[in-house]
Amino acid sequence: MEIQGLPGKLLAELGPAIASGELAEGAVLRIEELETRFGVSRTVVREAVRILESMRLVASKRRVGITVQPRRDWDVFDPLVIRWRLAGADRPAQLRSLGSLRVAVEPAAAALAAQYASPDDCRELSSLAVELTVTARAADLTAFLRHDIAFHATVLRASGNEMFAHLGDTVGAVLTGRTEHKLMPHQPRAYAVQLHREVAEAICAGAPERAEQAMRTIVTGAMQELAAELG
Amino acid sequence: MEIQGLPGKLLAELGPAIASGELAEGAVLRIEELETRFGVSRTVVREAVRILESMRLVASKRRVGITVQPRRDWDVFDPLVIRWRLAGADRPAQLRSLGSLRVAVEPAAAALAAQYASPDDCRELSSLAVELTVTARAADLTAFLRHDIAFHATVLRASGNEMFAHLGDTVGAVLTGRTEHKLMPHQPRAYAVQLHREVAEAICAGAPERAEQAMRTIVTGAMQELAAELG
DNA sequence: TCGCGCCAAAGGTATGACTTATTCAAGACG
DNA sequence: CGTCTTGAATAAGTCATACCTTTGGCGCGA
Q1: Do B119 and B226 reside in the same domain of the chain?
Q2: Which residue, of B68, B119, B185, B189, has the greatest Cβ tally within 10 A?
Q3: Within 10 A of A210 (CB to CB), how many other CB atoms are there?
Q4: Which residue out of B42, B62, B166, B169 would a mutagenesis test of the A interface target, given it has the greatest number of A Cβ atoms within 10 Å?
Q5: Positions of strand D less than 7 angstroms from a protein CB
């Protein structure tokens, strides 16, 4: 868990409960209730609630209590919120949202990377592309996933845009979830691997158009698989 | 300020100070120091620090204190972080990042909106397009800005993607900043207004390609103006 | 029936005591 | 002389309590 100490424990309970809808919009908590329920002091409860409040999952008002806010107010870009939603009943909706976001962002990031990638980025991408090819052939899904995550994170980072770069972890979470969930029986598709090589090559060659196009094919493909899987 | 009470006051001081680099990476604060500096109790200081910690602007360690974290760790999608950076020395970098993000996201959102917009969304977009035309002609920059923000927010919302929808406020902040900063002397460009009409029309007509293309022209145009202005 | 004012409930703040982790340095031992 | 151990000082973390402030709702009276 990202947040440390006792407040972290509370968050680890309350966050997922809210994200999954178990604590529905409008539900009201009271500080005292949480104190006894978790056997901690007011200090701890208040700090945890403050954090939930800063994510806009809850709002606290005098004489009323701590109220769970409607979904549309949630800070859906907060990494913890994303993780909590991915872990619960909201998982399909969250995956769809993230899928669309990837379709929008990753091709743009690839294009920028083709313009701004450093020699080191380029080396890393080439190396990762090779690893992807090898591990795919060997049907080593664990290693493949690790390199796949690193590949996408590297492209996002190489774009030079800090906001894109920060989506690396989130994309990683999506990829991890996909592998775990489908428990992919067969090895990754050769075509997808080929596209990753194409992206790496285009970026290293400084060809934004090609990089963008190849990346777009990757993420729209992922989006379609996702749509098929979720119905 | 988004966060209420005394902790909000602290955040309003500390957030911008960190975002602007005034409190540089590695700078150390102590709770007691903040207590006396702001004349508040530990409770308040701790809650404020917890929030900064959840944004990853600082990390707090025993026997060390509260340390300002390196930029790359910051939660750059947090609305408050964005606002603080826009208000300070990081403004150009933040604008560039947001510009790229808009170029990536808004065309995709427009395409999705063309598929999923409700009749109400469509009505609103058409109405806003008219308002844009009128206020542009009248050179009423305040009203124009208000409608421009509403227009982009509506497109993002109509995409049906909650994550896109949440970027509405941020885009609004960028547009506001642009108007205030340049203190636009002349009326908005007729060409840009025309493009907004085109977007509204394409969305209402259910034409994703056209909507996406028109929106892309708008945001890349904005990006170029931005690049020109920032050098 | 409507409006005004009072009260109680719940969060917000302040404070002091105590706990725990961590760094740094002094001292012991090889 | 260097390294390892141990201990003390420091600063955050937690707890319990008291008190302040806001505000929603109830009851009283017009």
Answers
A1: yes
A2: B68
A3: 18
A4: B166
A5: 9-18, 21-24
